[in-house]
Design brief:
This protein is α+β, with helices and mostly antiparallel strands and 155 residues long. The chain has 4 helices and 7 strands, in the order βααβββαβαββ. The chain has a 7-stranded mixed beta sheet, with helices on both faces.
Length: 155
């Protein structure tokens, strides 16, 4: 298995994985296409995990303008490849990218619907720092204090 930057060559497979992993969210394909075509208003990057020429995992990171925080985007691993270290390799890739951007804080938004993901993020060292009903934000800061939640950090 190898990790590669998401390009147009793997875009259809990446969109398929994200649609299967997040069936209620129609925005995924648009975000991935915008990133690959470099038409976003923020700094971002996506990777895919490839095994036997198939996308088996995806993750992305994006940094809103003027923010000191980066957000994890569309993190998913196909069920057959879970608990094999694919997610751990992807999260390390995200953390390395954040460091290269001089970012010390990674955040991810999720919901109670994805309890498996929430539990996994907590095992990876993320803490729930904000909850609003079923929605939550998890945070991992590698240095310094946890920055406060500011919704303008998302745009």
């Amino acid at each position: 298995m190898r990790l590669v930057t998401l390009t147009s060559k793997r875009l259809d497979q990446a969109i398929e994985l994200v649609r299967k992993s997040f069936p209620k969210d129609n925005a995924a394909p648009l975000h991935l296409v915008e990133s690959v075509e470099k038409i976003t208003e923020y700094r971002d990057k996506y990777w895919v995990a490839i095994d036997k020429n198939r996308v088996v995992g995806i993750c992305g990171i994006w940094q809103p303008r003027r923010s000191k925080i980066a957000w994890i985007s569309w993190f998913a691993v196909t069920p057959k490849y879970r608990k094999l270290g694919v997610g751990g390799r992807l999260i390390k890739k995200l953390q390395a990218q954040a460091r290269s951007w001089k970012i010390n804080t990674l955040r991810v938004w999720t919901t109670d619907e994805y309890k498996i993901a929430t539990d996994w993020y907590q095992r990876m060292g993320f803490d729930i720092i904000h909850r609003d009903g079923e929605n939550m934000v998890l945070n991992k800061t590698t240095k310094g204090k946890i920055p406060p939640i500011n919704m303008t950090d998302m745009y």
